[in-house]
Design a protein that fits this description.
This protein is an alpha/beta fold. The chain has two domains: 3-135, NAD(P)-binding Rossmann-like Domain (Rossmann fold), CATH 3.40.50.720; 140-296 and 298-337, Dihydrodipicolinate Reductase, domain 2. 32% of the residues lie in helices and 23% in strands. It has helices at 13-28, 46-56, 65-69, 86-95, 110-124, 140-150, 182-185, 189-205, 339-356, 364-383; strands at 3-9, 35-42, 60-61, 76-79, 99-102, 130-132, 157-165, 208-216, 221-223, 243-245, 251-258, 263-269, 278-285, 288-293, 299-304, 315-318, 387-388. The strands form three sheets. A nine-stranded mixed beta sheet has the order 16-15-14-13-7-12-11-8-17. It has a six-stranded parallel beta sheet with strand order 3-2-1-4-5-6, with helices on both faces. It has a two-stranded antiparallel sheet with strand order 9-10. The longest helix has 20 residues, at 364-383. It starts with a strand and ends in a 9-residue tail after the last strand. The structure holds alpha-L-sorbopyranose (SOE).
């Protein structure tokens, strides 16, 4: 069986998630399209790099990301660093002939995201694959929702409402990590989590063509944290700590129009007490409705118009071995999958694209469509007007 050597750049929270995916993929998906080997790792923090060898099972750690990109034995590079280094690493890796799985959003700059998409289009000609880590579109319940939509079970799509609400930065003492600094993150909550909803809604309902938005920053300053590691609200820094400015958005809400004629709304915030990973969708069609909530990951609620009037209502379908990605689930419905299995499904799709020389649905070219919507959302807020999502789509390179 073919083996593919993996180099991981950035071994924090998302690095761990990628490792779980690589390590578990052949266990869940067998025969695997190819077997990933954890070859080398680099983190900007030398202690984390060393620890990743012992903890995750990499063969070695490297002193720079360039050492991984230039290693002829590496086939795949996973980029799990903050947004401002994605473009430089991804473009160098694609040019070096490595397959690249990059965390979202693509970059801290729209121009760099475009250059990444263009580099991926050139690399594609040589069989080199790219993927942006929009894992939520691969949730079995979401893939099943797409099947129901394509089968016409809820008729013509009318409205799709998406929300991504979290609470980890609601506390003003939650520190100023790179996610609150424009020069590193590019865009705040909109880039961090609204992007997931944009990706899923475009997956389910097609391209978004127009947006009008309202973007807000609620906590203008936060306490500075000493280390660069993103603590995601797990640590609070007391009120007398040094404060620094937040120059990105805490929340964004926008109305959207789809090419298909459907309309919708998207809201994202990391300041919603009580909401943890509340990624929800409510889809209304002429013949029914579908509801999903990530906090009930293994469930999909459906309501069909052809039920008798006196017993029409939402039914809960529990996803499991009868639904998409049965390999990643367990033999009994209700045993359920979690975030780790979801990351494993993502890795499976990436390795399959490499092994079978096909394209992932979230390659850089496709994922650039998410960036275009974000760009229109930010512009709409600045100009206080509806914005057309750039019509340059399809004209990359
Ligand atoms: C923080 O908001 C975060 O880690 C996001 O960056 C991820 O994309 C999301 O899936 C979980 O929350």
């Amino acid at each position: 069986m073919k083996k593919l050597n993996v180099g991981l750049i950035g071994a924090g929270f998302m690095g761990k998630a990628h490792v779980i995916g690589y390590a578990n993929m052949p266990t869940l998906f067998w025969p695997a399209p190819a077997v990933p080997i954890l070859r080398s790792v680099h983190d900007i923090n030398a202690e984390i790099s060393k620890e990743a060898v012992a903890r995750f099972g990499f063969e070695k750690h490297e002193v720079s990301w360039q050492a991984i990109v230039n290693d002829p034995e590496i086939d795949i590079i996973s980029i799990c660093t903050p947004n401002d280094s994605h473009a430089e690493i991804a473009i160098a890796a694609l040019k070096a002939g490595k397959h690249v799985l990059c965390e979202k959003p693509m970059s801290n700059s729209f121009e760099d995201a475009k250059t990444m998409a263009e580099a991926a289009i050139v690399a594609k000609e040589k069989g080199i694959k790219s993927m942006c880590a929009y894992q939520y579109r691969r949730i079995p319940a979401i893939v099943f929702a797409k099947q129901l939509i394509e089968e016409g079970k809820i008729g013509k799509l009318l409205n799709i409402r998406g929300q991504y609400l979290q609470s980890w930065s609601a506390d003003p003492n939650s520190p100023l990590s790179w996610r609150f600094q424009k020069k590193v993150s590019g865009v705040g909550t909109t880039g961090d989590i609204a992007t997931h909803v944009i990706d899923i809604t475009q997956y389910l309902a097609g391209d978004i063509t127009d947006v009008v938005s309202q973007v807000s920053t609620f906590i203008p300053q936060r306490p500075v944290q000493e280390c660069g590691v993103d603590l995601l609200g797990t640590v609070k820094i007391p009120g007398d700590a040094k404060l620094a400015d937040v120059d990105v958005d805490d929340e964004s809400s926008f109305l959207v129009k789809f090419k298909s004629g459907a309309v919708g709304s998207i809201e994202a915030t990391r300041n919603a007490w009580g909401r943890n990973n509340f990624l929800t969708l409510e889809i209304h069609g002429t013949k029914g409705s579908i509801v999903f909530n990530y906090e009930r990951l293994n469930e999909l609620q459906v309501c069909f118009s052809d039920s008798p009037d006196d017993r029409r209502g939402f039914t809960t379908i529990y996803t499991g071995p009868l639904h998409p990605y049965p390999e990643a689930t367990w033999n009994i419905q209700g045993l359920n999958i979690g975030y780790g299995e979801l990351k494993t499904i993502e890795i499976y799709e990436f390795i399959k694209a490499i092994a079978e020389n096909t394209e992932s649905s979230t390659n850089f070219e496709q994922s650039y469509k998410v960036e275009e919507v974000v760009q229109a959302v930010m512009k709409s807020h600045q100009t206080n007007t509806w914005q057309t999502v750039r019509d340059e789509r399809g004209n990359l390179v």
